[in-house]
Specification:
By secondary structure, the chain is α/β, with parallel strands linked by helices. 52% of the residues lie in helices and 12% in strands. The protein is globular and about 75 Å long.
């Protein structure tokens, strides 16, 4: 079957984005090193795609080797996983397969980075070869259409909670269609690669007690007393247990009720499989709103929790993001309970983690306080390192003006069980064991900088080293694989546009997570919205002659200024409909203008693949600069975006005359 060039470009672009999304999702579920590096695979993907476009219209056809490299990446991740293990002293540590030590972090990350970049690079070469046969804007339009197809397909599989086998089968089918007769070349290597990917991911999907939610790879196992032990992404999460077992083995579940007043109405954020809900019911709650973001964990609780708390008519279950639920709720509660909602992130080295969490900011705790009925109690608990306990306790004190009650339980390695409570009137309900700093009064996290696991306002050395090595490696590979750097010199403005656009996209993803929750559906909707904005900009550029593109820069600067003066947390006071309308306007207006500016410039480029490659490599640098948010906050990224578009204006001055009508 011979594919038309249009169909080939759409399918290849869809495959490229689909494989990128699948790798981002899947590699982190098997390698805990990637939990610390939220955009590491994304950086590798942008590098590979940029290199693929730079080589797209020249050199040997290497696309048939893409399945082989993908198979090598899958095999490496499965053979050398990184998971949480336990020492004989009960301390958690990172472990590899069969309890052995994991590969050193630099080795593991280097192999994943290079194989990811190589795989996406060869897929991108196939995209670029067809891309170059169309006029630039038409090629860009078809590429974005394919990207939309890829993200919608992946979102659909996530909605259905399909395992990696489904991702492998989709990728394999598109590989076979695109390769056609080439699948039999190179001594059947492409066919072997495709078969290996399907077999490896198929075995992972059907062997062992795994299930796949939109967020996690979930493993369930039998625990003492007939309970169910749950792990997510190779990290222990929780063990379901009856109320009677909790009284004996985990009495901290009952600590929040020690100094609480009435608890007829209870809100549980992070309900998981239902332990906290069962305890609330046993303490006499008349109604419990149970909020859990992961539908698979809820189903495990429904099916296997010994007390079946989710079947109780007093319980209303909400599969939702905890912060988003609080922002929408109008109910008042006697007890608002944060029930280990961050337990999946408590791994070794947590003080250096870049993990956004909007549930532990001062604004989130202020919202939780506003939901308390008169005399109501706020409580949160987990196993905390001393410095993290100090940070959270200081956040509570910042909101209430009083140090919270702290009830301590047993230690687990460097962490200690702790329950913090405080009433809405800032009283402790008779508790005398109030918090006093052990490490220091650490600065609370805020919505603009929601990084509770970073001890200080800085970029940890590990991230700096990683980013430096990534950028150095990228420079070498661009020079060796893509050819002389001077070929991209005419497209320096497109490079800076790529830097700016990635940062702008990051800011908008974060803003929508704050406004509407961090659910997979919200993220998918945001990325789809970005691509639709790009398509709209392309259509305008195709149909309208813009003779003074410099005015687009002025409009973009005004849109960025609007986003700067109206930060996301100010919109939280609006009701959902106007919040959505204003949020979409502020977020997508600069994206539309930025893409219109890009489309007008891209319309007249000499080499569409080299220009597009330069833009993608700029996006990779933008992914590295994204770490500035750890120090400056996300809103400050808008300043960096404005500066990058300023550089694009300076380097592309001679192109500021629109195409003739």
């Amino acid at each position: 079957m011979t594919l038309s060039p249009r169909v080939r470009l759409v399918l290849a672009s869809a495959l490229m984005l689909f494989v990128e999304l699948a790798l981002i999702r899947w590699t982190a579920s098997n390698n805990l090193y990637l939990t610390h590096l939220t955009n590491f695979v994304l950086l590798a993907s942008f590098l590979g795609i940029g290199l693929g476009f730079l080589r797209g219209d020249r050199g040997r056809d290497l696309f048939p080797l893409a399945p082989v490299l993908l198979a090598a990446l899958v095999a490496f991740v499965l053979v050398f996983p990184v998971r949480t293990g336990t020492t004989s002293q009960g301390r958690w540590e990172l472990a590899g397969v069969l309890g052995m030590g994991p590969l050193p972090r630099p080795v593991s990350l280097a192999v994943i980075f290079l194989l990811t970049a190589a795989t996406l690079g060869l897929v991108a070469q196939e995209v670029a070869r067809t891309f170059s046969t169309f006029p630039p804007l038409e090629a860009y339009r078809l590429d974005i259409g394919g990207s939309l197809l890829g993200i919608v397909t992946f979102a659909g599989l996530s909605f259905l909670r399909m395992p990696p086998l489904a991702w492998a089968l989709v990728s394999a089918a598109v590989f076979v269609v695109l390769l056609g007769p080439r699948v039999r070349t190179r001594r059947w290597l492409p066919a072997v690669g495709i078969a290996t990917v399907v077999l490896a991911l198929g075995l992972e999907s059907v062997i062992g007690p795994f299930q796949w939610s939109p967020y996690y790879k979930i493993r369930t196992g039998a625990a003492a007393g007939g309970n169910v032990r749950v792990e997510v992404n190779n990290t222990p999460l929780q063990t379901s247990m009856s109320v009677e077992q909790a009284r004996t083995n985990s009495p901290f579940y009952f600590f929040p009720y020690t100094y609480a007043g009435a608890h007829d109405e209870v809100l549980v954020i992070g309900a998981g499989t239902g332990n906290d809900v069962a305890v609330a019911l046993s303490q006499g709650a008349e109604h419990v709103d149970a909020v859990e973001i992961d539908p698979a964990l809820v189903q495990i609780g429904r099916d296997r929790h010994p007390d079946r708390p989710y079947d109780d008519p007093r319980v209303t279950l909400h599969v939702d993001d905890g912060r988003a639920f609080m922002e929408r709720s109008t109910r008042r509660y006697d007890l608002v309970l944060f029930a280990l909602p961050d337990s999946a992130t408590i791994v070794t080295g947590q003080s250096a983690l870049r993990l956004e969490n909007y549930l532990f900011t001062t604004q989130a705790l202020e919202r939780a306080r506003s939901l308390l009925a008169p005399g109501g109690t706020f409580a949160m608990y987990n196993y905390y390192e001393p410095w993290l306990l100090d940070r959270y306790a200081n956040t509570i004190r910042t909101v209430y003006g009083t140090a919270p009650c702290v009830q301590l339980g047993p230690t687990q390695g460097q962490r200690q069980q702790a329950v913090m409570t405080l009433r809405d009137d800032a009283s402790t309900g008779g508790c005398t064991t109030t918090w006093t700093p052990r490490v220091g009064e650490l600065e609370p996290s805020v919505d603009d900088r929601p990084f509770p696991y970073l001890g200080t306002r800085t970029i940890p050395p590990f991230y700096l080293v990683m980013l430096g090595l990534v950028l150095l490696t990228s420079l070498v590979l661009v020079r060796r694989v893509g050819g002389p750097l001077r070929q991209m010199r005419p497209y320096a403005d497109l490079f800076f546009m790529g830097v700016a656009f990635l940062l702008l996209e990051t800011k908008n993803v974060v803003q929508f997570a704050l406004l509407f929750g961090t659910t997979w559906a919200i993220n998918a909707a945001v990325f789809t919205g970005v691509l639709l904005s790009v398509l709209a900009a392309i259509e305008v550029a195709r149909r309208v002659t813009i003779r003074r593109p410099v005015w687009l820069y002025a409009g973009l600067l005004a849109a960025l200024a609007l986003a700067w003066v109206v930060p996301g947390d100010l919109l939280l006071d609006l009701s959902p409909v106007p919040r959505f309308a204003v949020g979409v306007t502020i977020a997508f207006l600069p994206i539309f203008l930025a893409n219109l500016l890009f489309a007008v410039r891209f319309k007249t480029v000499g080499s569409s693949t080299t220009a597009f490659g330069a833009n993608l490599l700029g996006a990779m640098l933008g992914g590295a600069l994204e770490y500035l948010a750890l120090v400056l906050g996300f809103n400050a990224l808008l300043v960096v975006v404005a500066l990058c578009y300023g550089l694009a204006l300076l380097t592309g001055r001679k192109h500021l005359v629109g195409a003739p009508a």
